[in-house]
Structures are given as structure tokens and as C-alpha cells.
Amino acid sequence: MADVTTRIVIADDQAAIRHGFRLVLDAQPDLCVVGEAADGAGALATARLLRPDILLVDVRMPGPDGLEVVRQLAGDGPGAVPETRVIVVTTFDLDEYVYPALRDGAAGYLLKRSGPTLLVEAIRAAMSGEALVSPSITVRLLRGLTASPAPATARAALTEREAEVAGLVAQGCTNAEIAAELLISPGTVKTHVASAQRKVGARNRVGVAAWAWRTGLAR
Amino acid sequence: MADVTTRIVIADDQAAIRHGFRLVLDAQPDLCVVGEAADGAGALATARLLRPDILLVDVRMPGPDGLEVVRQLAGDGPGAVPETRVIVVTTFDLDEYVYPALRDGAAGYLLKRSGPTLLVEAIRAAMSGEALVSPSITVRLLRGLTASPAPATARAALTEREAEVAGLVAQGCTNAEIAAELLISPGTVKTHVASAQRKVGARNRVGVAAWAWRTGLAR
DNA sequence: GGGAGCCTCCCCCTTTCGGCAGAGGCGGGG
DNA sequence: CCCCGCCTCTGCCGAAAGGGGGAGGCTCCC
Fold first, then answer.
1. Contact state of B135 with A149 under an 8 Å Cβ cutoff
2. Residues in B 133-162 with any Cβ partner in A closer than 8 A
3. Domain A6-143 has what CATH class?
4. What number does CATH give the domain B155-215?
5. Where are the domains of chain B?
6. What is the pLDDT of residue A141?
7. Is A118 in the B-facing interface, judged by CB distances under 8 Å?
8. Tell me: the pLDDT tens digits for A31-40?
């Protein structure tokens, strides 16, 4: 591995955050902050001009937000900067930010409260072509993988049989298929789907399926 | 939160590894290694006896392997130890270990080459109910987030309009509602749903919704 | 000019859902 | 003991979805 200095650009609308990051990163012998930006347009411009190894970007910024920056730089469009890995750093771990960012090619997703250690680790990981995601977000990503360790509170609303049926609905099964699977009559399946529907407040079976995915009952 | 010492047990068949971990962890003021085990049976016995906050466990061990230890301790069976979070630490990042471990409730998955910093961070994350996964593994998990679960790849398969319709389908909207929302005729909505269905390989609209949820198009 | 792809709309028909109402068996708890 | 919740099943009917076809207008590109 080439042991040269890793060049970093920080994009955040809060000067204090930029200053704090710079202190932390410049304290590392192999890291160097070479630029800053206070909004999305500045982040894009600076990244395209300096082509840093790492761009730390906040999600919420004036102008194009962090997600848009990720899309443009990490994509394969005309304005992409392939040699720059973009790490998203933000305050809140909202799903609506996490998934698009990671899907669109972010090389990491950190929370500001994670502390300086993980920030440095995330940069080193990104330089190795890896990705570090904040532990608090990772647990949710894993939940999409987990054999449902129960938001028992929400699921308690449904009876065992209803939950079973709801899970199969979420897989795209018709009532007849569910009936065959569970060895009951299609009419009974309709009963279960209907009560599950009523209990979770859905207007049709797709709503039941959506609920099943949200709660982790289905995956 | 009680700011007491985090009690740790190390299970690894190599004494040198156990020794190294102990040095690193005991150097932290708030961490304390209270036990060691050299095989799976010992890991289970020690965990059940000491009920530590953290169990670091290697995957490859004599007797029950690390995955079995995770299953038994993190499950809800008779031998489970709910207050102990199990972090898997191993040398190789093989999928056949990673996925089962995380699915069965591991509170983290680390590579030994990750270094002491991430080890300490992983323990702190686990104590907060979070999970730290090695960056080199995270990239693969993310890859599975974008592409792998769908046989036909990315959203690029769908046209913009189809994706829009698919998103509304995932919200539980009927064709008529989607039509009203997008200001097009219900018949056109049916066309879009049908082609989205065909492209993602679904048998009905619930399958389209499932795909939208899996790929993150819908939330 | 001639595709190709996309969006839009229309027809037909069958299958599946969704809502309604009822009913019997079976278990646990007041 | 009786009531309540759950699971099972039945019927009917209108609404929605799914499958097949065709068709016109639009843009982009060769």
C-alpha cells in the first residue's frame, strides 16, 4: 500500500463541526484536510477541483444535500469523481437518509456522536475499499437480516396465526397459496388476512405486507 | 446508565490471541477481562457461570464452534444468557460465517486484523445495544443491500414512471389511487404495474411492493 | 426517414380480493 | 359454569387486480 498522506475535504454547514473534524484529522500523521465547504454546491465544486481521497459530507446542507452529493460524485455520470470516496457524517440516523446514501455508493455512514475514533477508522476503512457504518445504524441494517427478534409490542397485536398469514402475504402469496401452505381453507385465510388488515390499520393486503416488512416480520 | 466496569470473557483456542486481547482490553479503564475459554464448551460454561457483559468468541474452535455459541447464548432457549452480548472475532471473513452469526444475534463481527481500536469500539457499541461490523464485511453486506437479493438487478431495470408507480404500490395504493396521484388513467397505471411486475420477476403487485421495500425504493 | 423506448390510453376476459354476516369447536379465566 | 378470544369454516356480492391484445404520440438516435 502506498503510504502517502490521505487528502480529505470536509463539507458541513457548521463551521464548528468543520473545525473540530480538522483538529482531529490533522492530528493524525497520515491524514490531511486539504479543503472545506459549507454547502452542497461548494462540496461538489471542491471535490471536483481537489479530487481528494476522502470527502466527509453532512446530509443536511444548503443547496444540494449530502445525498445528492453522494449520487453525483459516486455515480458514473459526467460529474463523478471516482477516486474520491464519500463518507456521510450526520447528526441523526434516519432511515430515509441511510438507505439511499449507502445504495448510491457512500463509502461509510457515521453519526457525529460516534466520536473521533470511528471517524478516523472510517477513513482508513474507506481507503481500503471498505465501508464503516455507525454501529447504531448497523443494528438496523442487520434487523433486515435477522430472524425477527421481535418488536413484540407491535406484533402482539396479531395472533400467531394472523402473523403467519401476514408473513406469507408479504411474500406475495395469494390466499389460495397460503391455504395450501398452512393446510387450511382459503376462506379461513381470508378471515386471517382481514383481521390482520384491520389490526394493523391497512386498507388492503399490500398494507399488511408493508407492515410485515417494517416490523421485521417479513424479509 | 450505570457506569461500572464492563466485564468481558474471551473465548479463543489460541492462547496468544487471548493474551493479546487481554492486554488491550485491560488497558482500558472501564473494561475488565474476567474469564477465558479455549473451546466452545468452555465458552458456553464460562458465559453461563460468569454472565459477562461481553463474550468475544472465535468462530473456529474445538467442540461447539463460535456460531453454535452465538445460537445458544443469544437465542431464547433454556441455555441462553440474555445479558451477555456475543461479539464474533475471527481471522477470515467468510460469508458462511458472517451471515449466520449476525442473523442469530451476534452483537458484532470483527476480523482479528482489524486492530485493537475497532475491538474496543465494538465492545462499546455492543454495550449500547448497537453492533459494529468489520468494514471489510460491511461492504459485502451493503452489496447485498443493493443488488443480491433481487435476481434481476438494480432499479435501472425500471423506467422512472414504473419506479414511481412501484413506490406507490408499496404504500398500499390501489391502481385508482395511483392514477389520481399521478394524474393519469387507471389503465395506464395497470400497464406500469404489469411491466414493473414482469421486470422484477414478481407474480403480483405484492411482489412488486416486496421488491420496492427490499431495494429501498420504498420505506 | 426509420427504429427503439417510453408514456399514454383503450378493449376484452378471468381470477383474486375485500367486505359482510354467520357459525361451530376449543381453550383459559373470572 | 359461562364468557371471551382464537381458529376454523361457510356463503354471497361487488370491486380490484391480472393477463392478453392493440394503438397513438413523443423523444432520441442511427
1. no
2. 133-136, 138-139, 141-142, 145-146
3. alpha beta
4. 1.10.10.10
5. 6-146, 155-215
6. 67
7. yes
8. 999 999 999 8
To the nearest 10 degrees (0 to 180), the angle between helices A175-182 and A160-170 is: 130
Q: Which contiguous run of DSSP H or E holds residue A96? A: helix A95-103
Q: Is the pTM of this model over 0.85?
A: no
Q: Class of B6-146 per CATH?
A: alpha beta
Do A33 and A6 touch, CB atoms closer than 8 A? Answer: no
Question: What residues form DSSP beta bridges with B32?
Answer: B7
Mean pLDDT (10-residue bins), chain A, 219 residues: 79 90 94 93 91 90 82 76 88 62 82 87 88 80 48 56 90 90 91 89 89 77
CATH level 3 topology of A152-214? Arc Repressor Mutant, subunit A (1.10.10)
Q: String of b and e for A116-141 (b: at least 16 CB within 10 Å)?
A: eebbbbbbbbbbeebbbbbbbbbbbb
pLDDT score for A142: 65
Is residue A71 less than 8 Å (CB to CB) from chain B? no
Model pLDDT for residues B132-152, shown as the tens digit of each residue: 988 877 776 665 544 333 333
The one-letter amino acid code at A192 reads H
Neighbours of A178 (CB within 10 A): 23
As beta bridge partners, residue A86 has: A55
A37 and A11 in contact (C-beta within 8 Å)?
yes
